[in-house]
Amino acid sequence: MKQFDFIILGSGIAGLSFALKVAPHGRVAIVTKKDRAESNTNYAQGGIASVTSKEDSFELHVRDTLAAGAGLCRENVVRTIVEEGPARIQELMELGMKFSERDAPAEDGGKELDLGKEGGHSKRRILHAKDVTGREIERALLDAAARQPNIQIFENHIAIDLITGQKLGHAGANRCLGAYVFDKKGGRVWTFTAPVTLLATGGCGKVYLYTTNPDIATGDGVAMAYRAGAAIANMEFVQFHPTCLYHPKAKSFLISEAVRGEGGVLKTLDGKEFMDGYHPMKSLAPRDIVARAIDSEMKKSGAEHVWLDITHRPAQFIIERFPNIYQTCLRFGIDITKEPIPVVPAAHYQCGGVVTNVDGETGIAGLYTVGEAACTGLHGANRLASNSLLEALVCAHRAAKKVVARSLPPVDAKIPLWQSGEAHNPDEMVVVSHNWDEIRRLMWDYVGIVRTNKRLARAQKRIANLQEEIHEYYWNFIVTSDLLELRNIATVAELIVRCASMRPESRGLHYNLDYPQAKPDWAQRDTTLRKSETGGTPPPSQ
Ligand code: FAD
Ligand code: SIN
After folding, report:
1. Is the pTM higher than 0.85?
2. Is the CB of 283 under 6 A from ligand 1?
3. If one looks up domain 2-102+109-236+351-405 in CATH, what number appears?
4. Domain map of the chain by residue range?
5. What residues are annotated to the active site?
6. pLDDT at res. 34
């Protein structure tokens, strides 16, 4: 049993930002399933969208976010996050984050922040650290966390499930009391308790066969929150990034949208630009449009990829602006200053998640969710590029303020220790890896960029069969992180399919050939799911 004042599941931008804010008020446990920097945050390339230049305005950033979100964003949430962004960016810089700079105009002198451009943005507003923004964010936040004696980080510890009053049979409103956590190296399950638990477990790219996400992205937080009775919404809106490197040896390597922001152009294999046929912003159109256009071009021609060409820009500029992309592609034998880059769309970002308000409240007392695991209403049906790091910073700050002001009573309930299955049969581990592959492939084939009712129904049936098998495994066998993650990706796959099946229209990232148009009566309507047998409290009002 380990008792804290705050438990944080995840050490990406959301978890670490929240930890730094609450650490002066109590003892903080950060539980993270691999090493502390390993997170989606660590691989972020393009940067953080925020209004910092005289040519830009909050109104324009709000407008671009709403346009990308295709009628499903919550405007009040969008305004709050956009308007509070600059103060949070300033704090991040004070903590030690170093954004790229450039020479200011001669009349001002000195340096100013270098601003990048990405799809759907009407202005240059992306603050970045060359093309390794996320790595620099993790460095700055982890350095700051190391200076805080109240923060203890548990690496290689994977949260299994949330502990709630409802699961323990307590009467009254549901309350989160902590989490069961598996120590992967020590091989045992710990009971962590605290009055406040933050889910900052990120997204679920690994539910799909091809993704830009690292291996940690298995949707654990959404699956745990669902099992605990929280409301989950809008999981059908999986964002496919248009440009993942296509190479047999490259696993999940993103080619940042910033490359198109600096002039990179999409072309078919015979060298023709094709985006002018799809959107006036061409290669810099919002992501849902670009990903679908590439998918359609590939299907039309039978090609396995398209080209992204930035060779018309000076080599020196490309190497300085995109050092990581340049070096990585070079390792695969592609000199991006001289030849086009082979790219394909891949699953990238989960716009839905645990329903929260802008303060991270979930409807279960003591349980907060921030970052990619949350669905605040900022992204709507399609996230505007580089708005997710911004959302995590703003909402972590607001959630921390809320929990500190609220001061929930300590956990004094008697909590049973974890009961694990005893069987251990390494031969059967092949079933776990087979089921992993099967889910990821069927999600790619049936629930990808373009969907149909028939494919969704087929996916739902197969996932239900797999879940039955996983359920049996889960209760009989000794816990392993592969098994825990398998159970979670199966749950998240089910949630994606069920949300997709609930929406009888096409909107933003959800495109169903059986309903190719958006329906006005579905604007502003979320697809919300809650595990029926747990009942639960209504989701917070946004
Ligand atoms: P993460 O950063 O993913 O952190 C999740 C943490 O939770 C990790 O530490 C993980 O180990 C831990 N965890 C998960 N499950 C468990 C569990 N069961 N137990 C314990 N720990 C657990 N967004 C932008 O705004 N701008 C960009 O330029 C940008 N570029 C991107 C590039 C790439 C390649 C990718 C993959 C994403 C990019 N995104 C970008 C999206 C953005 O990086 C993420 O949405 C954001 O970093 C999510 O932050 P987070 O803190 O919510 O989650
Ligand atoms: C990118 O650099 O293209 C990723 C930006 C994002 O996902 O917001």
Report:
1. yes
2. no
3. 3.50.50.60
4. 2-102+109-236+351-405, 242-345, 430-525
5. 287
6. 98
